[in-house]
Amino acid sequence: MSNYWEQFYENQEKPLNYEDNIQKVHNFIQLHQNRRIALISSGGTTVPMEYNTVRFVDNFSAGTRGSASAEYFLANGYAVIFLFRLKSLEPFTRHIQGDQILNMLQITEIDIVVHNNATKTLLPILKQYKEVNQEKKLLSVPFTTLSDYLWLLRGICEKLSILGPQCLLYLAAAVSDFYVPRENMSEHKIQSLDGPLSITLQIVPKMLTPLTSIWVPKAFIVSFKLETDEKLLITKARNAATKYNHNLVIGNMLQTRKQRVILVTKNTEEEIKLSNYEIANVWAGPGSTAIPGRPLAEVRQAPSSLPIYKNKFNILDPL
Known about the structure:
The structure is a single chain. The protein is α/β, with parallel strands linked by helices. The chain has nine helices and 16 strands.
């Protein structure tokens, strides 16, 4: 009889281009097999309500934390597999959103140039981006749905398992706890003429169990726990560390996530807070000059000697 998580996969289709993406991951690992590799998940998962999807349930996440964290891992010698929600924030490009890039450019008689005031902002970002590209240290793998994410997470972890303790998982994605099974899903768009809508969501199997025990058992694992009830935060974070054998769980409250996190292990906990000055004045992109409105970074060493980023930017900024 299949394990409960295998039953989930048996009933969920693989994402488009799954084999191609896993082959890219395999090639990336081969290229960097002598380097530490971090898998960073980022952004929220969607839960389709219809097979030909028009409507879906979404998880709250813009990908700020994951995309910022990826830059720090890259700056500290890691190769990074960035498993991200399509159209969420990505490393480097996250710094320039909307029409900001147009405001940084000016037109001359024969050319387009970067405005002098923008050069100080763009130059360090562009330098790191070019260095990362030259060394092929970043592989971005997109997902949209919950099913996409879980299929790719398993496939990538199974490939990473050959690295043993040289692999780090930084699970910052906002993954849905609920889903609509394929057999309960409408094939076509649900029609409003049919009256009020009632949908029963099923519990998603806890994939952290096979992840830590089967797929990639020797990896150093960092996960996140977001709550709205302060009384539950540390208890649930510690339960995750203990039950799923995570090395570090970063707990944060929805209401104060910009200012405060609690780093929880099986036996310890430590609170980090941002000062008003850090919130208002300092940005900590690796090698960058200060930009107002971004907080400061700190780097600590994990017990396994793999760097874990107690980064006041990437773990405290909005989802």
